[in-house]
Amino acid sequence: MRKMLLFAVLFVSLSSSWVQAQVQPGDYSLRALIGPGFNIEDWEDQFRFGGEFDYDLGYNMGIDFVALVGVGNEFRFQMIPGFRYNYLYIGLASFYALGGAGLGHMLGENTLDFRFATGLNLPLGETMEAHSHVSMYISTLGIDNTPVSLDWMIGIGKRFR
Fold first, then answer.
1. So what's the pLDDT on residue 6?
2. Residue 101, Cβ density class (10 Å: 0-12 exposed, 13-18 middle, ≥19 buried)
């Protein structure tokens, strides 16, 4: 009997927090990001930090804007808008794929950067969230070669309704 009562209390508390933690269309998040970046071509490592804005459109879709700064042997800066699609939900966690294109600055030149990412977003209560993603950035126009970098960013954010 105690196990049944404990299960019922746990189920009700988790289901009520799950309903409160669901993202609704029109919700947006602001996140602080930090993590390592690796240049695939010459194995140059960078420390990356920045911020991200994410707006939920509904139907498992959203728009995203990320601004990142890379500190290492070379300075790197990126501002990239993107489109996000949530492809898997496990409990409260949502896994997503993201793609976008925007402005980059690398090796003293402005570039057109493409971003392809997959990540995980986990609500921490009603307004806070933990976030992690792996992104591949391809710098195409404005530079002699085509640098490709892989970043793993983790962060924490606040969701607004």
1. 54
2. middle
Paired with 58 in beta bridges are: 61
Query: Please, are residues 149 and 38 in contact by the beta-carbon 8 Å criterion?
Result: yes
The token pair that represents 73 in the structure block:
């042997």
Q: For 3-62, write each residue's pLDDT tens digit.
A: 566 555 545 444 444 444 567 888 999 999 999 999 887 767 889 999 999 999 999 999
Q: Is 7 helix (H, G, I), strand (E, B) or coil?
A: helix
Instruction: Write the pLDDT tens digit of every residue in 88-145.
Output: 999 889 999 999 999 999 888 999 999 999 999 999 988 999 999 999 999 988 888 8
- Dihedral (C-alpha) 57, 64, 128, 151: value to the nearest 10 degrees? 140
Nearest alpha-carbon partner for 72 in 147, 156, 155: 147
| Residue 141 burial (10 A CB sphere; 0-12, 13-18, 19+) | exposed
- 131/157 Cα distance (integer angstroms): 7
Question: Which residues, listed in sequence order, are joined to residue 112 by a DSSP beta bridge?
Answer: 103
Q: Where are the beta strands (DSSP E) in the chain?
A: 28-39, 45-58, 61-71, 76-90, 93-106, 109-124, 128-139, 148-160
Q: CA torsion, points 136, 141, 143, 148, in degrees to nearest 10?
A: 10
